[in-house]
Amino acid sequence: MSYADNLLAGGERITLRARQHWLAIVLDARYGILAIIGALVLFVISRGWTDSGLVRNFYDLVGWITLALFVFGLGQIALTILNWWTEEYLVTNRRVMKVDGLINKHSADSSLEKINDAVLDQNLLGRIFKFGDLDILTASDEQVDKYRMLANAIAFKIEMLNQKRALEVEQMSPPSPPFRAMPQAPAMAPGMTMTGDMAPAPVPGPAAPTAPAARTMTPAEVTQTLSGLADLRDRGAISPEEFEAKKAELLGRL
């Protein structure tokens, strides 16, 4: 179980896990890679030097520099790989999350209901290796977070939008009415039969619960709800008839 699993709320489940593309390791560890290349070059060059007093002292100095470059390069690459492994990007049925940090953990999330859109940028290399940069926007078109060099960025964006639509449909669906209790047959005296006019009158069952009155909504709430319904209609989640019926109902709550 990863650190992100401990951050889930009740009823929340992870639908997609992702990480940065492996090319991000090469980019972030570029200084370590250059240090190892430099150490190898110095080692090869120094092997061809003649053995004399002055050259010997210089050779020892170059040897220490070569060792330092090699150790620094290995350490930087190892740290980059560990940071890459502990960084996770997740989509749940309630939000999108980013968790990073090797020792000190940091998590940032955005609620699906507040996300307006996601901007995906892919260059030629990203299209070949299937990674991209994803910027998440809120309803006010303010940038929330940046996911850089995200592996399978297209699949991540599609899953995020699918979960957002499912959450909107869930929030607009009315709860199912309670089942009405069936009336029980009345008790009869010993020797009495259910024939003809002697059949006792049925005892009326409990009155069906009256539906609560519709809550009055503010114009801002009605506008926001209609905007979400229009988005669902444009995506084909609801029919135009269902949209018009719901619109009339919402306007009646003003």
Please describe what this structure looks like.
- Helix content is 44%, strand content 18%.
- The protein has 254 residues and is of the alpha+beta class.
- The strands form two sheets. A four-stranded antiparallel sheet has the order 1-2-3-4. Strands 5-6-7 form a three-stranded antiparallel sheet.
- Strand 6 (131-138) and strand 7 form a beta hairpin.
- Helix 2 (30-46) packs antiparallel against helix 3 (53-86).
- The longest helix has 34 residues, at 53-86.
Shape: elongated
Write down the Rg: 33 Å
What are the secondary-structure elements, in order, as H or E?
Answer: EHHHEEEEHEEHHH
Query: Beta-strand level of the residues, as a percent range?
Result: 15-25%
The neighbouring-strand order within the major sheet is 1-2-3-4
Number of helices: 7
Instruction: Quote the average pLDDT.
Output: 80
Which class do the helix and strand fractions yield?
Answer: alpha+beta
Q: Give the beta-strand count.
A: 7
Q: Report the uncertain regions.
A: none
- First CA to last CA: what distance? 48 Å
> Largest sheet, described in full?
4 strands, antiparallel
Relative helix content: 40-55%
